[in-house]
Structure formats: C-alpha cells, structure tokens
Specification:
- By secondary structure, this protein is α/β, with parallel strands linked by helices.
- The protein has two domains: 117 residues, Alpha-Beta Complex (Aspartate Aminotransferase, domain 1), CATH 3.90.1150.10; 246 residues, Type I PLP-dependent aspartate aminotransferase-like (Major domain) (Aspartate Aminotransferase, domain 2), CATH 3.40.640.
- The chain is globular.
- The structure holds pyridoxal-5'-phosphate (PLP).
- Pyridoxal-5'-phosphate binds next to helix 4 and helix 5.
- The site of pyridoxal-5'-phosphate has 14 residues, from helix 4 and helix 5.
Length: 378
Amino acid sequence: MNGMKDWFLLDPNMTFLNHGSFGACSKPVFENYQEWQRILENQPVQFMTDHVYSALNDSRIALCDFVGCDEDELIFFPNSTTAVTNVLYNLDLKSGDEVLMSNHEYGALVRAWTMYGKKMNVKIIQQEIPIPLTTEEKFIADFWKGVTLQTKVIFLSQITSSTALIFPIEKIIKMAKKRHILTIIDGAHIPAHMPLNIHELGCDFFTGACHKWLCGPKGSSFLFVKKEHQGWIKPLVVSWGKNGDDPTPSEFLQDFNWQVTRDMSAFLTMPTAIDFYQKEIRSNQGTCRKIIQDAHSEFQAVLNTEPISTGGTWLGQMAAQPLPDQTPPDLKEKLWNDYQIEIPLFEWNNQRYIRISIQVYNTQKDVDLLMSALRSLI
Ligand SMILES: Cc1ncc(COP(=O)(O)O)c(C=O)c1O
C-alpha cells in the first residue's frame, strides 16, 4: 500500500486517521471534477440547459450499477442529511405515530428527526443497543424491543458514526417489511466501504455518501427511492421539473435533477470515482481491515478500556474505543500540535471516544505513531 498517498491531495506531513468524517478526494477524481467545472464555465447556457442532462444520466447509471439499483431509482444530493430531510418532510405520519432508530445514530440526523417529531407530534424513539455488541441475534432482539403497533418508520445506520460499528440490518429490514414499517437506511459510510446491493437489502430508502469511502468530491451523495414510493417523494425545493429542459421520461427524475441553478460537477464524477475505486482502492481494502482489527485490540491494551464490540464483522475500516477517565481534555489539540495526527474524539452516551479510520493511503506506521502518542499523552 506504500505510495498510495501520492494518489491523494492530503498534506504529506500529517498523519490522517480521519477518513470517516469527510473522506479525501483522489487526484484523478478531483481533476475530473475541475474539468466538469471548466466545461460548465466554457458555455454555461448550453451546459445547463442541455449537456448537463446526458452527463447526469451517465453518472447516475454508473452509480446505480455500483450500488445495485435501477437507473431511475436514484437521485443525487449533496449529502446524506439533505437526502434524509427530503424523505422525512414527505412522510404522511399522524400524531402518535412512532419513528424507531437506535441510540447510535448520527447527531445531525437525530436533530432533524427530533425537530420533525415536535412539529408533527410524532414520537422519535432512540432504542438503546447495549454495548458491547456481541451477536447479530442479540443486536436484532435489542433493537426490535422498540417496535410497537405505532411504529411506522425505522431509521437505521448501516455503519454508525461515533461508534463506527457495522449494524447487521438485513433481517430487520425483512421483519419491518412484514409489518408494513418503512425502512430508511443511513448508509453514509457504505459506498466503497462495504459491498452494496440495495435491491438485495430490500429497504424503502437508502442514502449513501460518495465523498467518504468512494473518495469523490465533497457534495456527492445520493438517495435511493423504491419505485412504489416515487409518486409521493417530492423535492423540498420545487423547481421546473417536467416544465424544464430535462429530456428524461421520468417525472421523478425531472423533479430532482433540476433543483435550481447549482454546480452539479461533483455529481458528474461518479464514473471516474468508481473507476479509480475499482483499479486502485478495492484490492487494498483487505489490508485496511486487517490494520483496523489489530488497532481495535491495541486500543484496548493502550487505553485500558472495555471495547464496544467483539470486533470481527462489527468493524470495517473504522474502530472507536472509549477513552479512559484520566484523558487530558485537550488530547485532540495535543495530538495535532505535537504529532500532526488528525483523528476525531467524540462524546457518545456520556463517554468520550476516539475513532480511527484506515483508508488505502494509511499504513501500520500511522497506527504505531498514534499508539505511541496515546501512551505518552494519557
Ligand atoms: C452515519 C452518518 N450519517 C450521515 C452523515 C452525513 O453527514 P452530512 O449530511 O453532513 O454529509 C454522516 C457523516 O459523517 C454519518 O457518519
């Protein structure tokens, strides 16, 4: 994996262990992104009224193929929060209905749901999934305890943010379907992190970020909407839609493709991002996972805290570990100022955590530096 760093724009003087937050764009994809911006500015009118639609089409088809859905079931969004927000304000829930999520969900989206819940008098329930996570059966049983006759929607991450855990969601989606509960999956971390086939997963809605593990430009994300729901999912910003220039026969795509004047260059890079992933990233991911499994064990030895999972299939290319009580409050600043290590610390469930991400540009040396810094600082 040595030399992979050269493919990225990251400052070579820092140790970057935070791919999970905002990703890092590879050089070929960034060049493609800028190329689209130049094409746009070369003839803005022709591009925005004509050329952009075929380019969007090509990019969407490549992405649909990559994530396992039909080419008219996916729309681009700049990020997962806008994608989920667009779904929740289209829901037709009644006062007293319930939305069930875990207590590991992404903070911004918990806020979004909570605000919606207050406005609509809908109960937002954050079901506790006790840690450490051990077996799939226990995880499902713990989550399903939150389901009641009022549960109308399940909102669940496939990989969680602060706790960095892979949730086995397949059976929960099947169980929800039997009870006519809508499933909205937050897969922000999934594309190019885990194999993804949305049709096989069977959920109603799925959002994924392409600027994280697919290494696309910031602002490239998507929302999958199952065909049967496309009639009632409308954009929050209503624009030209079927009265515009978009030649597609799908009213759903027309509604979402043109959402006022904006730079769609990030959306157009998907064929290049997928190609880069297939050629340069995929074959190195096994090494990344091995480094994470080892780091998960080493965290326990260095920090002397209990792990939040048994490792193994709960982990992909990230791992989070509770920090001990004696951790200095300015640990993050010290890691950056003294060691040039970029790594996030989170508070979750009244406990501080450190979360490591390993992407193909990282090596074991980066983890060694982190562990030796933690030994000195804590
Ligand atoms: C689990 C999860 N969901 C959603 C998001 C999306 O955040 P944003 O909409 O700001 O890109 C993130 C970002 O880190 C995340 O970790």
